[in-house]
Amino acid sequence: MAFSLTRAAVSACAAAGLVMFAAGPVQSATFKLSDEQVAEAVEHGKMHFDQDVAAFRWPYINNQGYGYPYVLMRTEYLAVSDYVRRSEYQRKYGSQRIHKLNEARIKSAQSEVDGHLQFMVTVYGPSENFMEEYDFTLMAGDKKVMPAYVDKPVMAENSGFKGKLMYAATIIIDFPTDDLSGDEQVTLVVDPPDGLGPSGSRNSNFNVPFDLASVK
Known about the structure:
By secondary structure, the protein is an alpha+beta fold. It has helices at 7-22, 35-47, 53-57, 76-93, 103-111; strands at residues 61-63, 70-74, 117-125, 135-140, 143-145, 149-151, 157-158, 167-175, 185-191, 206-211.
């Protein structure tokens, strides 16, 4: 489930993504979709099947630049709509033209998040196992939420960069949503091993904010 995206692609899609979502109504994240909301997510994916991936996911992305974590926040709504978008694109232009959407496949996409708030965090480091020491928490006001599940790859991949950014790893973190309303500001706190913190403050945590009121 690794996910990576070049800085150039993100920059190119930023303006389009912001314009597309700026005019949308105020909403809030829903952690367990109703049947009607699943149908809405499916329709959203179908309508935007040919949209650039970064623009489609833009409200759910926090990218702080070169060497910093790249974070994709996934709700059930995004998991379903993004799956449908990819599936429809493959059916129309790719090698999976016989592939048909059905309830089982949609349920499978929904179950990837399964009522949690999920983050896919791509981090960079100097060795194949650098990500083992990373820890994560979620702050919602003064509430501290600990992960329900963390999935780290066995081995990092070559990033294409040099030195301390030579390797990249995408870590999946699921947080329980029992104490979240879905319309608050949350901050993913990425706690790196010593020496891998933000530039200029190498042993500090990364704070990655998201506004749940602006997404579904």
